[in-house]
Structures are given as C-alpha cells and as structure tokens.
Amino acid sequence: RALRMLRAVRTLAPGLAASAGVASGAALVASQLPETWHVSAIPVSIVLGAAAANGPLKAHAALLKPGVGAATSTVLRAGVICAGAKLSAMQVLWLGWATVPAAATAVTVGMVAIPRLAAWAGLAPRLGALIASGTSVCGVTAISAVGPAIGASQAEVAIAVANVVAFGSLAMLLHPHVAHRVLPADDSASIGLFLGLAVHDTAQVMGSAAAYAEQYADTAVVSAAAVAKLTRNLALAAVVPLMAARHAPGAAAGKGLSAGTLAKAVPTFVLGFVMMALARSAGDAQLAAGGKAAGLLGRDAWAQCTELVGGVLSTKLLLPWAMAAVGLSVNVGAFAGVGWAPFAVGAAGAALVGSSGLAAAVCA
Question: Which of 53, 57, 188, 228 is the most buried (most CB within 10 A)?
C-alpha cells in the first residue's frame, strides 16, 4: 500500500508542482501590475499556464498530465468548496436587503438570455453556460465553480475567462462615466447599485467604484457597490447546482429538472460549496444574535477564520493553482476555429446585464 502511494505521488508530483509554480509566478506578475487594473492572480494563472504549456513545457506534456489533471479536478473542487465561506446571507441583510430584487433581476436576465444568444450563435451549450455565469454572477469565480459542475472543457473555461477579463475590464473603465452622466450625482446608493450589478468580477466592481469615488469625490459609492456585488455573488449558491442539473446527461433530451435529476446531477463538491455558504451564514446569524459563531468563536476570530478559508485558501491559493493547471491543459490550437462568436455573445451579454443594472438604478 505504501508503495502504491509512493508511485501515485511520483506520478502526480510533476504536474502539481508545475501548476503551483505557474500560480506563484502569476501571483508575482499580478502584484506588479498597476493597482488601477484590478487584475487578480486567477486569470493571470491561465494565461501563464497556457503560454508555458504551448512553449517550454510542451515537450513534457505527458509527464505533467496526471498532476495537471489532479489540479483541475481535486484542487479546483477544494477551492470551490472553500469559496463558499465568502458568501453570507447575513451580510446582505445587514448592509441592505433592498438590493436583492435588483440583483435577482440582473442575474436572471443574464442566465436566461446569454445561453440563448450562445445557441443562436452556434456555441456549445456549456460554453454559453460559462459565459452566462461569469457575466451574470461573479466573473472568474463563477466560471471556476460552474466549469467542473457541468463538465466543461479547459478550452471552454479559458474562453469564458477571456470574456470576463475583456468585457469586465471595459465595464470597469466605462461605467463610472455612464453613472455620472445618467444618474443623479447626489444618489450614491443608485450609483453603487448600478456599478455592483453591471460589472463582472468582484475586483472589477471595487475598482470601478473606487475610480468613481476618486474622480467624483463620493466615497459612499464604494460601500453601496460592495453591497450590490455581494448580493449578486450569493446567486452562485443556486446557479451552480442548477447549471449542473441542466447540463446533466439526459437533461437535453427533455427529461427536465426533476428533484431526482437535480440530486443525481449535482456533484458532491457543489453540495460542499453550498454547505460552506450555509455555515458562514449560520455563524454570522449567531453573532448577530449576540452569541458565538459555531458556539466557539467571537466576531474577530470568526472573521479571521472565514477570511482564511474563503479569501486566502480559496482565492489566493487553491483557485490560482487550479487555474494554472487549466492553462497548462490548454492547447492553443483549440482556439484556431473559435472565431468571433464567443466574444460577440460575451459583449451582448455584458450589455444586457449592464442595462438591467442601470434600469434597476434608475428605478431605485
């Protein structure tokens, strides 16, 4: 038994080490980029991984494959589970429950319309689901969670991430000026609501809000945008299992989303993600009631614990590690026939979700 374990370690080690090395390099590169770009190590990991896989490491693909496969499955799933610690229903209730209907509308518009646009453009259903999730919910984190749940290919994940980085960055730059021109200058809540619903990734939302606050001297916009984005992020707990069921074998044949289909289709790690989010919400509720989280931890200790699991372990360690492996799995040749369609769908989806957010802000 010990010998089998040793052989497994020797087989997996090269790919796992290469993925970890790429992720470390991505963290270094991301830390050197201008802060105003608000680019995390996760998308950089995919880019560097793809560059390495199709360059200096191409000759060692067979050696790296087992470990890279483990990183894109086991490591990624662990990262998704830990990401659940970042989602708390109590935070939304504390900061402003009125954002819930607006966020639900924006997410629903994207999750319904973008897959239909993707089908009309001839894209694979799973690619449409990834673009919809990343655009509508929470950018790269949503893609990372939905991808393994629906069995998406590494190339599909990479294309969806490229959409989020491109159109999310564009929204981050443009939407502060749109907000200033369209919305009342003294309505910080509506401006923050628009930015929180219309920009893709959490880092991009905060960058957009910070840019508005600096340029137009309105710091209240930052907290309002954070509330709207957090509310949007909570939708991930519902989107992941629903997408898993929708893309389960037999679902396309018209069997529908029965309770049995949902139970069989939802992977165990998705349940772990939902349970982690529920645990975070329960702990926050206990603190709000004057008790201790899990009966043990005070407010400061609980905040440190959830940040360690959801912020450090998931966002800074496991997900970049897994996304580096995704990059190492990508064959650039797979992009040769992609064409403009995925990016046209991404642009149209970003416009739809952004317009929904703007409409919500105007009506608020």
Answer: 228
Q: Model confidence over 52-82: pLDDT tens digits?
A: 988 889 889 899 999 998 998 889 889 878 8
The partner residues of 293 in beta bridges, in order of sequence, read 297
What backbone phi and psi angles, to 5 degrees, belong to 184? -60, 135
Residue 215 pLDDT exceeds 50: yes
Helix, strand, coil tally for the chain in percent (to 5): 85, 0, 15
Rounded Cα distance between 145 and 138, Å, is: 10
pTM: 0.73
Contacts of residue 109, Cβ cutoff 8 Å, sequence gap at least 6: 136, 352, 353, 356
Q: How far apart are CA 325 and CA 18, in angstroms?
A: 8
Which residues have CB under 8 Å from 130's CB, separation 6+?
Answer: 143, 146, 147, 150, 152, 156, 157, 159, 160
- Whether 33 has a pLDDT exceeding 50, the answer reads yes
Determine whether 356 is exposed, middle or buried from the number of CB atoms within 10 Å of its CB (0-12, 13-18, 19+).
buried
CA atoms within 13 A on the CB side of 204: 26
Taking only Cα atoms into account, the Rg of the chain, rounded to an integer number of angstroms, comes to: 20
Residue 294, phi-psi category: left (phi > 0), alpha (psi -120 to 50), beta (remainder): left
**β-pair partners for 297:** 293
Strands (E), 256-307: none
CB-based contacts of 220, cutoff 8 Å, min separation 6:
188, 189, 192
Query: What distance in Å separates the CA atoms of residue 134 and residue 235, rounded to the nearest whole number?
Result: 12
Predicted pLDDT at 267: 64
- Assess whether pLDDT exceeds 80 at residue 263: no
Contacts of 290 (CB under 8 A, 6+ apart): none
Amino acid (one-letter) located at 92: V
**Residue that the structure tokens 């995704």 belong to:** 326
Mean predicted confidence (pLDDT) in 243-257? 65
pLDDT at 195 over 80: yes
Share of the chain above pLDDT 70, in %: 90
